[in-house]
Structure formats: C-alpha cells, structure tokens
Amino acid sequence: MNDGRDTGAITCLSVRKIFGTGYNRFEAVRSVSLSVRPGEFVSLLGPSGCGKSTLLMMIAGLERKSSGTILVGGDEVAGPRPEIGIMFQDPTLLPWKTAIENVLFPIDMMRRPRNDYKERAIELLRMMGLSGAERKKPRHLSGGMRQRVALCRALISDPRILLMDEPFSALDAITRDEMNVVLLDIWQRYKTTAVFVTHSIREAVFLSDRVLVMGGRPSTIISDTAVPFPRPRDFSVGDTAAFNEICRALRDQIDRGHGNSDVNETAGMLPVAPGVREQSIGM
Ligand code: ADP
Ligand code: MG
Q1: pLDDT of 236 over the 50 cut
Q2: Which atom number of ligand 1 is nearest to the Cα of residue 214?
Q3: DSSP code, position 63
Q4: What is the pLDDT of residues 209-223, one digit of tens each?
Q5: Of 101, 130, 95, nearest to 118 (Cα)?
Q6: Is 49's C-beta closer than 6 angstroms to any atom of ligand 1?
Q7: CATH number of 8-83+161-167+186-273
Q8: Ligand (nearest to CA of 283)
Q9: Residue 54 near ligand 1, beta carbon < 6 Å
Q10: Ligand 2 center to residue 49 CA distance, Å?
Q11: Are β-strands 84-87 and 75-76 bridged in parallel, bridged antiparallel, or unpaired?
C-alpha cells in the first residue's frame, strides 16, 4: 500500500468492458490505457455512448472491468474505496436530510465519528458559498446549490481522487460557468487528482491539464492533448486564440473518432442483438 500523495495516481492498462453475454454481448470499451498523475486534472471528452461513464465507474470500483488492469495509488481496484470521491450529473441528495447531513452522509456510511468531520463539512460548505444554508433541505436549494452540496459530500472524507461524471451538464450556462470556477478553486486548494467526464469541449479545456478524447466504436482513447494555460485560470482565457485553437483541434479529433466508428462499426462489434447498441452518438 502506498501512502501520502502517491495514492492519487491512476493507471489503466488495456481496460476492456463487455456488457451481457451471448447475443446480448456488447463491447462498450475496447481497450483503454491511460495514466493520471497525482494532483493532475484530466478530462475525458467524447460523444454520448462512447463509454466515458463506464470507464469512470470501473476506475471508481463501482463497475467490474472485463479485462485489463486498473491501479489506484499502485493498488488494483477491487471495489469502492474511501480515497475516491465521486460526483454525478444528478446530485442524488437525500431529500429528508439537510445540506450538512447530506455532506456528512458518507461518514455515517463508513461508520466514522460524525463529530470528527463536522468542522470540515462547515468549512467545505463555506468555501462553496453555502454558509447559512447548512440546515436547508435540498428542495429549498437551487440546482447549482445542490451540486455544490454534492461536491462537498464528495470531498468530505478528504479523497485523494475526485471522479466527476458530467456534474454540471444539467445546469444552466451561467451556473455551469460559476461551478467550473468553484471547482478549480477547490481542486487547487485540496490538490486532489481529478478525472472529469464531459461532452463539452470548452469546459474540458478550461478545467484540465490534459484532455483525453474517447471515441471509435467500441471505444478507445484516440488522443491526449496537454492544455498549457497557467493557473489559476481566469474565464477570460476562453477568449484567447490559443484556447480556441485547442478547441478546434479537439473537435477535429472527435470528428475523426466518429469517422473511424462509421468504418469500423461492425468490424469492432461483438455479436449483438438489435436495439442493444446505443442509438445515437450525437453531441
Ligand atoms: P457515455 O457515458 O460515454 O455516454 P456509457 O459508458 O454510459 O457512455 O455507455 C457506453 C455504452 O455501453 C453505451 O452504448 C451504453 O448503451 C452501453 N451500456 C452502458 N451500461 C450498460 C449496461 N449496464 N448494460 C448494457 N450496455 C450498457
Ligand atoms: Mg455518461
């Protein structure tokens, strides 16, 4: 077992995922190899249905891989673990619990003493601009506030790794931009490793040190692009020619992934029953 900062490293080697058996066999992820350094912010970008969520769930230990190797902090992933925090598009808050009770919920689940984490919960909520909302129930919070609570909950046990699956996709554009800024503040402060799934090119570029494009059917990683802008980043970086150039290059890579998928669609496919495949890979 590693200790200290190294626990934030992620390595995937030839990771493959096949759902179902027989005629229902469907290869969702063909072969993914990637590595994420401790403290790095990496986005997984790709069209809907290309296997981003499946890959993230395998890294989280919430979905079993069919073959290959997944290492977190040098250890093979065999199930969910406390050093990984996770966040989804839906905040999945418990409606009968207050904001702070929702933040502390993983602590209750891990049967750790709540009192040891209360101060951290209050501090996290404060950093997210939610001071005064600690005792509010989710129905009294806006969509953006609910996602902030979900982010506090993901961070409550001081995870080395934060996995996020399109966490801001359901928010309006202004709230989403705000959340991106909040997320970068938090990430810089806690120095967690971050893997962020999105199908927004601009969001991926603004947030990340590296953007991995997933594509093809079944999918693989088709490109790995470093984003050179210094940090802390200001939203105005999005107005620069360099930013737009990276976005354009990523768009090309995604389109090429689509092209490959058309050519290889059947070549790469295991026997599949009609209707099992994703209907659309539009963005
Ligand atoms: P993304 O997150 O990139 O939109 P997903 O990882 O959700 O893609 O899905 C990848 C592919 O795997 C899709 O074609 C989807 O229909 C399929 N898939 C996902 N989960 C299952 C499952 N439990 N059983 C069968 N197929 C699945
Ligand atoms: Mg998904």
Answers
A1: yes
A2: 3
A3: S
A4: 999 999 987 789 999
A5: 101
A6: yes
A7: 3.40.50.300
A8: 1
A9: yes
A10: 7
A11: unpaired
